[in-house]
Specification:
Bound molecules: S-adenosylmethionine
Distance between the termini: 13 Å
CATH architecture: 3-Layer(aba) Sandwich
Strand content: 15-25%
Number of strands: 8
Strand order of the largest sheet: 1-7-8-6-5-2-3-4
CATH topology: Rossmann fold
Number of helices: 9
Length: 226
């Protein structure tokens, strides 16, 4: 797993590349790094694989999926973009965007609507199945929106994927006026073209105060979680 050059390396902890284990581990890490009870919005809730693995231990959980699943989870059965634009997001501090394709349109909506209060932390888990898109040098609108990458000039996108993810993370943090306090990333099995990212953001001023007051607590979160 290559580390990226576009973020503070102390804050990026790459994880092992076994698909399901990595995805569960990233979720556990993000939940733990919040340092407060996790209130999860699971925007691509699916059959509940990660609910059973991880989110059942969260303080609260609400799912969302286009499909209805007959189980005990509270869930919206709708397009998550409509739900994310409509509901009060302040009651959630952890957003799971486990998309088959690109999760960035949903991330853009959350970044626009979920203000982070001073001292508060927000967690994200992203699954990006965009490998083929990048291999074909296609820049989806959501990626262009966040990174400024231009479709007509795109070359070598798959090779630059980690850098693109770093640019996306930076853009989201900037829009939320936040700093990245922890980040984990992994790539799925060879050939699957799937990337996993776990992120914890904190209001920018809150981070500065915490670092000054505690001998760099931010850096201490960069310890490899595996
Ligand atoms: C990779 S699966 C998610 C698996 C899930 N995280 C789990 O733990 O079982 C992706 C899910 O997203 C749902 N989905 C795709 N696009 C969606 C959208 N725009 N809004 C809501 N759900 C969507 C699909 O129906 C599918 O169940």
């Amino acid at each position: 797993m290559r580390k990226t050059s576009m973020v503070d390396k102390r804050r990026v902890a790459p994880i092992a590349s076994s698909a399901k284990g990595s995805k569960a581990l990233i979720r556990r890490n993000v939940m733990e790094a919040l340092g407060e009870p996790a209130h999860v919005f699971d925007a691509f809730a699916g059959t509940g694989e990660f609910y059973r693995e991880v989110w059942k231990d969260a303080a609260s959980y609400v799912g969302c999926d286009l499909r209805y699943f007959t189980d005990d989870r509270a869930a919206y059965v709708a397009d998550n973009r409509r739900v994310l634009r409509a509901i009060d997001l302040s009651r959630f501090n952890l957003f799971d965007l486990d998309a088959y394709g690109m999760p960035w349109e949903q991330a853009i909506i959350i970044a626009a609507r979920r203000r982070i209060k001073a001292g508060e932390r927000i967690g994200f888990v992203f699954t990006e199945g965009g490998g083929l898109t990048y291999k074909n040098n296609i820049v989806p609108r959501s990626v262009a929106n966040l990174t400024g990458l231009s479709h007509d000039k795109a070359v070598g996108l798959f090779r630059r994927r980690t850098d693109i993810h770093s640019a996306i993370v930076s853009a989201l943090a900037k829009r939320m006026q936040a700093k990245v306090t922890a980040r984990w990333q992994g790539i799925g099995r060879a050939g699957t073209n799937v990337a996993y990212i776990g992120l914890v953001l904190e209001a920018a001023s809150g981070v500065a105060a915490r670092v000054r007051g505690s001998g760099n607590r931010v850096a201490s979160r960069a310890v490899n979680p595996s």
